[in-house]
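Class prep. Protein, please:
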Amino acid sequence: MSVLKKLEKKLETVFEGAFSKGFKSIVQPVEIAKKMAAVMDEEKVVGIARTYAPNKFVVTLSPADKKHFATFEEGVTSELQNFLITSAKKGHLTLIGRPQITFVTQKTLRLGQFSISAELSGDLKQEISKEKKSQATIIMPKQEIKKEACNHLLSYKSEGLKHSVKIKKATTRIGRSKANDISIPDPGISRHHVNLVLEKDYLSAVDLGSTNGMFVNGKRVAKKLLNNGDSLDIGSTRLVYRRIND
C-alpha cells in the first residue's frame, strides 16, 4: 500500500467521514498531502553530503475550507507531518525536526482551491551555508585546485554522443537539471543526483538522496571513494572515472 493510500485510510478511520469523498468541493487532506510531497521535492536543497527537505510548509485555503478544517486541524496537521517524514525517508531526503505546517486563508480562493509553499527554516539555511563554506575552505583549498585540476577525468555517453569531462572544482554536481555542473538528460537520473567531491588527490562520489540511487562497480552505495577505472552508474548512464596521470 502506498504512503498516500495509508494516509487516506488513516484519515477516514480517525475523522469518521468528515472528509468524505461525497463532499467533492471540499479540499481533501490526501490532496494536500500529494501536493506537499511534490513541493517538498521541488524545494529540496542540495548540500555537500546530503539533500535537505524543506521543513516549513504553509497551506493556503479558501475561507470555507479553512472553516471546515478548523475542528480537525490539529489532527490533520499531525497526520500530514507523519506523512512528510515518511515521504522524506523514502526519497532519501534529510528532514531536520518535525515539519511545521501552518494553515492560512485567502479570500480570493474558492471552495476546493488551495496552494502550498515550502521553505527551509532560517536556522537550517545557516547550517547548510556553514557546511558549504567548510567544504570549500577545508576540504579543497583554492591553491590546490590548479594542482589537481587535470588529474581526474569522467567519461560517459549521452544521447549517442561521447563526453569526457575534467573534474576541476572542489564539488561537481551531476544530475538531470541544466543547473548542474554536468547535466545528463536521462529520465532515470534525479534533478540533483550525485556530488563529486575533490579532496587533495582523491575523488569521492556522494549520492544526493536520488530516487534510483548510485552504483559504483555494480554495488549501490551512498558515498564512495573512486579508484582509477571505477564505473559509476546513475539511471541508465554509465560514467567511467580515470586518473589521467596514472
